[in-house]
Specification:
The complex is a heterodimer of chains A (281) and B (289). Chain A is an alpha/beta fold. In chain A, 26% of the residues lie in helices and 26% in strands. Chain A folds into two domains: 155 residues, Rossmann fold, CATH 3.40.50; 73 residues, no CATH class. The chains are: A alpha/beta (281), B mainly alpha (289).
């Protein structure tokens, strides 16, 4: 059996003197789909940075694909937090995908038939061929995100890290991006770590959930972790977990005071058929 | 007029100016792409003005003004690199260093008796007046700069347009920022020879800014940027020879003309065509699905 995708052993991360999370001992099995949940500032992105080898631990250890983390590990594909690109950015989707393959190498980067073919395959696999040669900054958020997924997958990674890939996308595009990542996961049987503040779009795909709040954490299957008891213990204040139309809503009483569970877009919930179902606190 | 030009081209000082001009234009064309993409116009200006200080100091000491200029820009680049890591902080550090350094330059010049001519050459450029020793020096600096650019070009582009993923893929983003400052220092020292300290942006911003308007393909944009810089510098040198008006007047006019045509004529036409093509392909792929 091969090594787990990620294994934390009594890991503590500090950032600027503040402990982000402590004593994290957890294994993401090979081939698993893990969602990392939690409010803003709970260290979800920091966790990805540790796996990428860009941040070190204060205590404990971490292994990525059986080895110590290292910068630029080619076995990891990375989709960064979505952000608006400059409209005039002189870059096409095809260039973005190619940078994911060989952008880290020194030199000018001359035309290479094998590279061109792999880039074209990656673009085709996310069905972005129609706009891969248009200026990237002029594409819609969903189109840009498809090309981001192609960029992360072009190197044929063992482990895919996604940092809020659904942020700023409407429901339809959230579904499409989720399906792309889920399809790759099913086809290749490789591992996915998916940071998100809303578990619902990926609920059907997720094997395990890691919920991080104020330096504490809880992990397990979605059914184990996303319960009122576990989350109330985790937040240290009363939390309700509601299941409505197959969606999970996490609602805390501490809204606006001290900390906030990040659910403004859960209230009200817009269903796939467009109905607005207000959920009262 | 042609005969006059051919006659002038026979002079060694003209040939040297053209040789140096070609190297300087290529360096400027590539560097300006990154200056624009990384939003570093202000840093370029600071390097340039502190190059003036270095140059004035060198004149005072009786050493090569090109070397003085390069020392000024490199010291400034290292200073900015050491102090201004974050973007927001960078601009204030640049401003603080620039103001002091420029004052120092003025002081150096007042100590020197040939004040006016030298000051004019540094501030507005005088490529045809560069000594043959300095031409060799300029070509050498240009060659080293181009070699450095060739090595870092791809990761520097990655770090510029897509810093998060570049960092995750192991590109030394912070180190490249400092390396690029040093490349910029050399490029400024080169371009100042043609257009002078005050007009530096005409070679280190305009070509890259125009190229961005014409294509979204990074390689093509760099080629266009080099082309515009070459046209401006060589055209400027030749027109200056024919008219006795300073080179920088023509270089700034030519590069500005390129920008206007690119921005308002060719650019909109090309983008309209690209968009029409993109729409056609989207409709096609939607129809075949």
């Amino acid at each position: 059996m091969s090594a787990p995708a990620v294994r934390f052993d009594h890991a503590t991360l500090a950032y600027g003197g503040r402990e982000v999370w402590r004593d994290l001992s957890l294994t993401f099995e090979e081939g698993s789909f893990v969602a990392i949940l939690g409010p803003n500032g709970s260290g979800k992105t920091s966790l990805l940075r540790v796996v990428l080898g860009l941040a070190g631990l204060r205590a404990g250890s971490v292994e990525v694909l059986g080895q110590a983390p290292r910068r630029g590990n080619p076995a990891i594909g990375y989709v960064p937090q979505a952000q608006a690109l400059d409209r005039d950015l002189p870059l096409r989707g095809r260039d973005l995908v190619r940078l994911g393959l060989d952008g880290h190498r020194w030199g000018i980067g001359r035309p290479d038939r094998a590279v061109t073919r792999r880039v074209a395959e990656a673009i085709a696999s996310v069905e972005a061929g129609a706009y891969a040669d248009a200026p990237l900054g002029r594409l819609s958020g969903g189109e840009q995100q498809r090309l981001r997924i192609a960029q992360a997958l072009v190197g044929d990674p063992q482990l895919l890290l996604c940092d809020e890939p659904l942020a700023h996308l409407d429901l339809r595009h959230q579904g499409e991006i989720t399906e792309l990542v889920g399809g790759w996961h099913r086809r290749t049987g490789r591992s996915v770590v998916f940071v998100t503040h809303d578990v619902n779009p990926v609920l059907a795909l997720v094997d395990r959930v890691l919920f991080v709040v104020n330096g504490r954490w809880a992990a397990g299957t979605p059914d184990e972790v996303l319960t009122a008891e576990r989350l109330t213990a985790l937040y240290g204040s009363h939390v309700d977990v509601l299941r409505v139309h197959g969606r999970i809503l996490v609602i805390g009483e501490a809204f606006g005071a001290g900390f906030e569970i990040e659910e403004p877009h859960h209230l009200p919930v817009v269903d796939h058929d467009g109905d607005v179902s207000g959920v009262a606190r | 007029m042609i005969a006059q030009l051919v006659h002038l081209l026979g002079y060694p000082f003209v040939q040297h100016a053209i040789e140096a001009g070609i190297v300087i234009a290529i360096v400027s064309g590539v560097v300006s792409r990154f200056v624009v993409a990384r939003n570093m116009a202000f840093a370029v200006h600071a390097l340039s003005e502190l190059g003036f200080t270095g140059s004035a100091g060198a004149i005072l000491l009786g050493v090569s003004p090109v070397l003085g200029l390069l020392s000024g820009t490199v010291i400034t680049a290292l200073f900015i690199g050491a102090l201004g890591v974050r973007v927001r902080e960078r601009d204030s550090v640049v401003g603080v260093v620039m103001a002091f350094g420029l004052g120092l330059g003025v002081f150096f010049l007042t100590l020197y008796s040939g004040f006016a001519t030298q000051a004019f050459a540094i501030l507005f450029g005088a490529i045809t007046g560069v000594s043959s020793g300095d031409v060799v020096l300029l070509v050498a600096i240009g060659a080293v700069t181009l070699a450095a650019l060739a090595v870092v070009y791809r990761p520097l582009m990655f770090a510029t347009v897509d810093p998060e993923v570049a960092e995750a893929r192991g590109v030394p983003v912070g180190l490249l920022a400092v390396v690029f400052l040093l490349i910029m220092a050399a490029a400024v020292a080169e371009a100042v020879q043609v257009v002078g300290v005050l007009l530096i942006l005409t070679l280190l911003i305009t070509p890259g800014a125009t190229a961005e308007r014409l294509t979204a393909a990074p390689g093509a944009a760099t080629a266009i940027s080099i082309g515009i810089a070459l046209l401006s510098v060589l055209g400027g040198i030749l027109l200056s020879l024919l008219t006795n008006v300073p080179v920088s007047v023509f270089v700034t006019s030519l590069s500005f003309a390129c920008y206007l045509v690119g921005r308002f004529v060719v650019g909109p036409w090309l983008i309209g065509r690209q968009r029409a093509l993109g729409d056609a392909m989207r409709i096609h792929s939607a129809a075949t699905e």
